[in-house]
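User: Continuing from earlier, I have the next pair ready.

Assistant: Great, send them over.

User: Here they are, in order.

Assistant: Folding the first of the pair now:
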Amino acid sequence: MKLITTVLASLVCAALSLHGEETKRGDSLHDFTAESITGEEVALSDFAGKIVLIVNVASECGVTDQYEVLQALYDVLKDRDFIVLGFPTNEFGGQEPGTNKEIAAFCKREYSVTFPMFAKIETNGDKQLPLFRYLTSAANPDQVGPVGWNFEKFLIGRDGKLLRRFGSNIEPDSGEMIEALKEALKEEE
């Protein structure tokens, strides 16, 4: 029995060390990696010093037209170190059924998206992308907890910390969002 316990303990320790990166709790955006929509691993620390807006997106949602405003914001503010990162998910109403290649083609064709897009992910549950574990649990003045629907928006400061969180019903060009963006961009002045 002692031998079995020792072997089991060794296996558990080995498994934890193999998956240490996945189970490690990050303290900022910069602690994570994610797969791009074309399959490359991206260190999110590449966005250090930028204001980042992370959005979980879907091609067949009632608010999919938010892509247009997200792209416009990116076009206007990218020279001020602002970037939008899109993370497709199919977990809300099955509204992102396509492959990564189909999603990329849709975004380009329908909304001329040029901001970085990532591979389809899970924002909640057992298969939750570790980045979203951070985003849904980090303190902020808006809310903490699971993502509720497509096109939730997470505003990240230059230091990689979550500043604000906005629901799907908050348009990217709403007064509330624009004020939050202005405040975040003031950090550079």
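And the other member of the pair:
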Amino acid sequence: MQVNSARIETINNDERPGAPLAPWTYRNPELFELEYEALFLRRWQFIGHVNDIPESGDYITGNIGRDSVIVIRDKSRTIRGFLNVCRHRASRVLEGSGSCRGVIRCPYHGWTYELDGSLMAIPQQENFPDTDKSQYGLHTVQVDVFHGMVFVRVKGDGPSVAEQFAHTAHFFAEYDVANYEQISTPVEEIWDVNWKVIWDNYLENYHIPIGHPSLFRLLKENGEWDELTSGINYGVFVMRDKPSRVENERLYQEQLHNADHRLPDALKGKWVQFGYAPNLGIDLYPEMLDFFQILPLGPEKTLVRGMFYGHKNPTPEELELRRLNRLINDPVNDEDRQLCERVQQGIRTDGYEPGPLALAESCIFNFHELIRQEIPVATLVKEPPRGSVATENLALDAAASE
């Protein structure tokens, strides 16, 4: 999606949402390939935090579906991004996270790169006559740092992450996210669900009273929310005054005031939830931050990743709130998995036609409009014949451009 930064503004949601995407779009392998190119490789993807790579040579890797990237600090401590693939025979170069001792070396044949990605050495150079090493550096990807959060974009161009957040970016300064560090090992699961089912679910709160009774006991919306044309949306939740009958939830309510001393009064006792289309949820709590990232593996298979960050010098009270938070929210993630898998099963049903979207589900409609804008074939109610989705998409795109 090529977002024009000059036009990033609030979406007017006064009218009833239009129709959702057709069921075929949640299972078609040809459409999946178009989505992967347009919505994942060409939009910013979260990889980690600057404090994950504090020194020269420190690196993190991130998988975006079938693609992998490296984010590393070079010798001048500049943060750089590369495709995680050797220029020789396509081996993955680095795994996980760690620190390179001055160079990046492929584990297959030993091709060696400087920390700035340039090719430094080829073993048995005599076997590569007339090879110009300057032409075989690691492929670069765009890197953007937003309040300490590191994003990469593999292809395309467009506005920065900060521009896409527009007037909602102040939250990250108020929570001091730039100074956070990783506080827990990331959690990864594979769900047998199309990625859009998961993102649809993340975007709406209509299911909370039934699907997440713990959240319903704890929280209520306070009417503060916004949706932007860049694909950003956020909402603010406040703690209910009534104590929960469940011990961990009640303890969290009682102790929350001990962990919000770093925040301005306007944010005390609140949770702020961001959605960054097409696949990143950001939850800001007084005691920590978590990322909910969905990464497509196939038409009906998705990697779901959770990452956790917080202040470097937590008080004992903040540590206790973090523990209680995970006890509350980890089961919520399990509930969402069950809900999404039930939807994916239902979408496969022959003859199913989607019902209307609720006013409270406007975020879903706006997300679906983003997909339709980027991939015109997704506007079709009836599934195109097998093998024709890409061709039909090109025809519709050309017609729209005339």
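Worth noting for the second one:
The domain at 1-42+178-402 is CATH 3.90.380.10 (Naphthalene 1,2-dioxygenase Alpha Subunit; Chain A, domain 1). The chain is about 25% helix and 25% strand.
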